[in-house]
Amino acid sequence: MRTLSRNPAIPGNNLILSIDIELQKIVEDAFGQRRGALVAIEPSTGDILAYVSKPNFDPNLFVEGIDQQSWDELNNSLDRPLVNRPISGSYPPGSTYKPFMALAALELGKRTPEAAIMDPGYFNFGNHRFRDDKEGGHGSVNMYQSIVHSCDTYYYMLANDLGVDAMHDFMKPFGFGQVTGIDLAHEKKGLLPSTEWKRNAYKTRAQQKWYPGETISLGIGQGYNSFTPLQLAHATAILANNGVVMKPHLVKVVEDSVTRQRTQTVPKESYRINLKQENIDIVKKAMVGVTTEGTSAASFAKAEYVSAGKTGTAQVIGMKQNEKYNAQSVAERKRDHALYTAFAPAENPRIAIAIIVENGGFGAVAAAPIVKQALDYYLLGKKPISKDKDNTPVPKEDTVAIRPIAEIKAEAEAEGGPEEGGETRGNTD
Q1: What total of structural domains would you count in the chain?
Q2: What CATH number does residue 38 fall under?
Q3: Residue 88 annotated to the active site
Q4: pLDDT for 346-400, tens place per residue?
Q5: Which of 8, 314, 352, 411 has the fewest C-beta atoms under 10 angstroms from its C-beta?
Q6: What is the separation of C-alpha 202 from the centre of its chain, rounded to a whole number of angstroms?
Q7: From the candidates 95, 150, 217, 296, which is the catalytic residue?
Q8: Residue 4 lies in a domain
């Protein structure tokens, strides 16, 4: 009816993002209609260069209040476009976990680079058999070969030697199972298992007991392990940055709109992980081997730079004993997820990436080519000419089961635990 008072508008601060908008567009286009997430980070600063969650949605629908039909379509979609996958999606890391396991082995004195194991194609623990991805095994395998060829048996044995709590304590500083502190709301913690976690997570003594057989699968990124794509990218950036931890962030600089004074949001490192450089170099060399002679060699055969990487494949549905997985015989949404982690250039990393393509199949086929396009642009300024899928045959790596919570609880409650008998189908492709 009348104006009682009036306050003049006050300019707010300007937020300058770290996102490389062209890189963001290239990755989103590379995903096409596929579901998944990708996070790219500059290791030396923690700047997030690309942050992709697919499928996405038009936020302008919410500006004036979204209509009921549009809301129902978004909220009820099987593709879950409203899920912020990089920080809210939680997935087993699969074989992308193996470089960190290898580094743990070196740092804790459980393995030397030259020490080799004989892989017959399985690892027996008690009366339980954990199978390798390669029928008949890989033969003699040292640390370098275990990463390049993704040998499960090597990491079954290593996990048994390390133990769950030692693995937990080593992986925690890398951000696995921890909130990174990114400047976004609703970040999920994920799950980095330990005996203490299990005691607190369950009510009965039978449920709280940690069975030794549960430790074995952790070595190949299976079991209770469950991390966000951001955590996987953050850990990869830390490895690329030789143990120096930079908090990941989207807002790079806050600028005063009047004075134009700029303030960096992350001006210094968070902390450093005490690691021997010689051990880091061993793991990095093996990850370079993945791209030159290993599971992602086909995708990076013509690269004009040297990158380091690791493939992974996560199984969505369980298989019966001795049953072979055939992607063509299962529904699309039950097919394996594809993962890939990378940093480049290998000798002086400027970018670290983690990606998951839901139901995409092998990491080398579905995930690595997208990362290749991202690196080509960021390092060389090259933009993709064609969106055609790369169907070049690639070596197979391992598969990790995404297990329902009910199944995990049932196993935890089972008397004697998984080591009592039976056979575990390994990370087979």
Answers
A1: 1
A2: 3.40.710.10
A3: no
A4: 999 999 999 999 876 667 889 999 999 999 999 999 998 765 544 444 444 444 4
A5: 8
A6: 26
A7: 95
A8: no
